[in-house]
Design a protein that fits this description.
disordered N terminus, Maltoporin, Chain A, Immunoglobulin-like, 7% helix, 6 helices, 30-stranded antiparallel sheet
Length: 825
């Protein structure tokens, strides 16, 4: 009932909004123009259909997106189609007769089937057709074709980052700025279609660091190690239910068969990095080692003016100026091994460590005045805030492929351990530069996680059944102790503060099971339906105060995707799912960060989970020339929404924590386009228009948000290429405020040499500006505030990349890892 109400509300509102209706009309006309300009040659009129599924001869995996061509006896082309992501193709409206069929794909021998007779059965099904991998070395092959930057694969949108030269140097957060539907602000905060409650995976699995601080984690992943990024706004039942906004999966580059390696060196005015990977593979054993070291300078200036009101009358005003200039030193290393004793079995192991130090030292000037402008408080403050973080992660996997193509069992296990400390020391000085107050907070935190899961895939003719189960046990502990000087006493003499000292232990247990059925039936219809049930048990214990809490809840999460492909170019898709967001220890921990006494932050042990309903209607056009244009209408209704809420304390101070506020509704339209204007010149971009409405018993905030970005590449002779990208965002809206628009633009140039095994890339961000300012406005029932953030510009990066070794396509197995995409930030 609630889903029907949401859909009805979206339609009614779009009818009332002339700008949206006009934009929708323009997009429809644009789609029509693309369709007419790129229409396929129609199939000859007939009643016969020829179909089949292309699979790899060595590992029985699907060969997706291969080109399938049908010829008559005179070898004249009769029909052609590109197989879908599962290797399935269907050629329709064929006349009776004898034909031959060819299937081609990069890295495979051309498949030729002769003497195909169409005269009896209306639908002629070839079943599973095997394609053999080429045995030649890739070193001897010159590849001139590249994938489109943006691809729509039905249940996900794919951005092929390796084809974008401006991704040399930089980090994953820089790459995400170019992905349709994703926005990243200057501080690194990520949103997917306006929601920050997202799950970010790496190669199909999360890392513990992604749960802790997404913005910092994304800065640790080098951009030049990313192959592609997958966006799933309505994930199927196979994925964990966590992540109200959807799932972002970052696919990293993999080494192929043989001894291979690469080294990347980046230098710039704000970032320096050294990274590389080395791989060794034979017929049964594969070993890979990857590492990256990075140094990044983060510099900013900020100002805030916040006024407290009572019955509309001014009570006091806080004015602050803040400066930061910190250098983060981070790194990671990963060792992965896989052993394939035969074509059906694969054992995998991987171990990695992520870590570094993220200081947040800052200097603040603060002045508090009363309603008449008289100074009540004035001081300077110096804070030293360390944040050492280390994450250790281990994975074991076993994959069993059955003799039946597509039938597979995977058993996966993972253990991770995190050390995550937040110690700080803050000093306050009067205007005569005399020390008047000191506070020391030693917060030591560590987290552990065990996961075991099993997934089974079973083909039923053209259909696929997936079932699985998972168990997760998470533990966390935070030991926070505050010592501070006393009013009127010696500021260097610190005494314990019992009210802000405790040991908080936390346990979360999640049990889940799912079933998903993918149906492929006549006339290019596809239906994916399924359900997932998740049981959650949460327990918290405050050791010092001898208080505890525990809660249990069960969620049933349905999902359905219905798509229709027609004309070889067009796809329409409708989908519905639910998503949940469990409050995690980072939101529950009552540790108070008072490093800035006027702006304090804490967790809320009373948080409850939130439930999100998601509906989408999408249309996608992919032309014979490779152009892609996609339009999506979407709506989201989030109940029990978890949002940050600030409340006044005393003397102009505020305490911010997360609270269940009520509900949040989002609906909008998203459009993405990718095309090659010429053989040398390609363009892609997207726009998103969205309405946001926060509603609680005490407060309401709503408004429109517009986002857009564009990327273009031009390939020059002699292995030179140029690229530019840019974006504009009107800002974000949250429960108690909004920020205003910002923009970015990057220009880049690349030169390849040494037989394209080496390259030098120069990227410059915002070259014609000296400063990027972001303005923020906050409104609450009893206060208003205005803030600005300044980030220095421009920034530049020069990257040298070198790859070496002997590569071949091989016939390797992809080692699966645990996919705890339910973990919240």
């Amino acid at each position: 009932m609630e889903t029907c109400t949401l859909i009805s509300s979206v339609i009614k509102y779009l009818k009332r909004q002339a700008p949206v209706s006009l934009l929708g009309l323009i997009l429809i006309l644009l789609h029509g123009a693309f369709a007419r300009l790129n229409a396929q040659t129609p199939f000859p009129g007939g009643k016969y259909t020829l179909e089949g599924i292309l699979t790899d001869s060595s590992n029985r995996e699907a060969v997706g997106f291969a080109t399938v061509t049908l010829y008559d006896t005179a070898h004249k082309q009769v029909a052609a189609e590109i197989a879908d992501g599962e290797g399935h193709f269907r050629l329709r409206e064929l006349s009776a007769g004898n034909y031959s069929l060819e299937a081609t794909f990069l890295g495979y021998e051309t498949l030729i089937l002769k003497s195909l007779q169409l005269s009896t059965d209306t639908v002629h099904n070839l079943g599973h057709i095997v394609m053999k991998p080429e045995k030649q070395s890739l070193q001897a092959v010159t590849i001139t074709a590249t994938k489109a930057l943006i691809q729509d694969k039905g249940d996900r949108m794919v951005y092929n980052a390796e084809n974008d030269i401006t991704n040399s140097g930089g980090a994953a957060s820089d790459v995400l700025r170019k992905v349709p539907g994703v926005s990243v602000d200057p501080e690194g905060k990520v949103e997917l279609r306006g929601s920050a409650n997202i799950k970010v995976l790496i190669n199909g699995k999360p890392s513990s660091i992604m749960a802790r601080n997404l913005a910092d984690a994304l800065k640790m992943i080098p951009a030049n190690t990313i192959k592609s990024i997958e966006i799933m706004t309505t994930p199927t039942a196979r994925f964990d239910a966590e992540g109200a906004g959807g799932v972002i999966n970052i696919i990293t580059k993999k080494n192929l068969k043989g001894a291979t390696g690469n080294v990347n060196l980046t230098g710039g005015n704000y970032e320096q990095a050294l990274g590389g990977s080395f791989g060794l593979r034979n017929e049964k054993l594969e070993a890979n080692l990857a590492f990256n070291l990075k140094r990044e300078r983060e510099k900013s200036e900020a100002g805030r003016e916040r006024s407290v009101l009572q019955d509309g009358s001014l009570q006091n005003t806080l004015y602050q100026r803040e400066s930061k200039d910190n250098t983060n030193t981070t790194g990671f290393a990963e060792l992965s091994l896989s052993y394939t004793p035969d074509t059906l079995n694969t054992l995998g192991f991987s171990a990695n460590i992520w870590g570094g130090v993220w200081p947040s030292n800052r200097n603040v000037y603060a002045r508090l005045t009363d309603s008449l402008g008289r100074v009540m408080e004035e001081y300077n403050q110096a804070t030293k805030f360390k944040n050492p973080y280390y994450n250790f992660e281990f994975n074991l996997s076993y994959n069993r492929k059955m003799k039946r193509p597509g039938q597979e069992l995977a058993v996966l296990a993972q253990y991770s351990y995190v050390i995550d400390n937040y110690p700080y020391t803050t000093d306050q000085y009067n205007m005569a530069e005399q020390l008047i107050y000191r506070e020391n907070n030693s917060n030591r935190s560590h987290n552990g996680e065990w996961t075991l899961q099993a997934d089974y895939t079973h083909p039923i003719g053209k259909h696929v059944l997936e079932i699985g189960a998972k168990g997760i046990v998470r533990t966390a502990s935070s030991d926070y102790r505050v010592e501070s000087s006393q009013a009127g006493g010696d500021p260097t003499q610190l005494l314990p503060n019992p009210a802000r000292t405790n040991i908080f232990d936390y346990t979360q247990e999640v049990g889940a099971a799912y079933a998903s059925l993918k149906l492929n039936f006549g006339k290019d219809w596809m239906l994916v339906g399924g359900g997932r049930i998740e049981y959650t048990y949460v327990k918290g214990d405050f050791k010092s105060s001898s208080t505890a809490f525990d809660t249990r809840y069960t969620n049933w999460i349905p999902s359905i995707i219905l798509s229709r492909k027609f004309g070889g170019m067009h796809t329409i898709k409708a989908s519905y799912t639910q998503r949940i967001l469990r409050p995690q220890v980072w939101s529950l921990n009552p540790f108070i960060d008072a490093s800035d006494p006027k702006n304090q932050f804490t967790g809320n042990p009373s948080l409850k989970p939130e439930l999100n309903h998601v509906v989408e209607l999408a249309y996608n056009l992919t032309t014979k020339s490779g152009a892609n244009i996609s339009t999506t209408l979407y709506g989201r209704r989030l109940n029990n929404s978890i949002e940050e809420v600030a409340t006044p304390l005393t003397d102009g101070a505020w305490l911010t924590r997360k609270v269940n506020i009520g509900n949040l509704t989002r609906y909008g339209i998203s459009e993405s386009v990718s095309l090659d204007i010429t053989k040398q010149w390609s363009v892609n971009g997207d726009v998103n228009l969205e309405h946001v409405n926060f509603k609680s018993p005490d407060w309401q905030n709503s408004g429109w948000i517009f986002r857009t970005n564009i990327n273009t590449t031009y390939r020059l002779p002699k292995d030179y290429s140029l690229q530019a990208s840019g974006g504009w965002n009107t800002g974000w809206i949250w429960f108690q405020g909004r920020n205003y628009g910002w923009h970015y633009y990057i220009v880049g140039a690349k030169k390849e040499f040494w037989n394209k095994n080496a390259s030098i890339t120069l990227n410059i961000a915002n070259p014609f500006e000296t400063n990027l300012r972001v303005k923020v406005k906050e409104e609450r029932p009893n206060s208003v505030a205005a803030t600005y953030l300044d980030f220095p510009r421009p920034s530049f990066m020069l990257t040298f990349a070198w790859k070496f070794g002997q590569l071949s396509d091989g016939d390797g197995k992809k080692v699966k890892k645990v996919e705890n995409d339910d973990r919240a930030r």
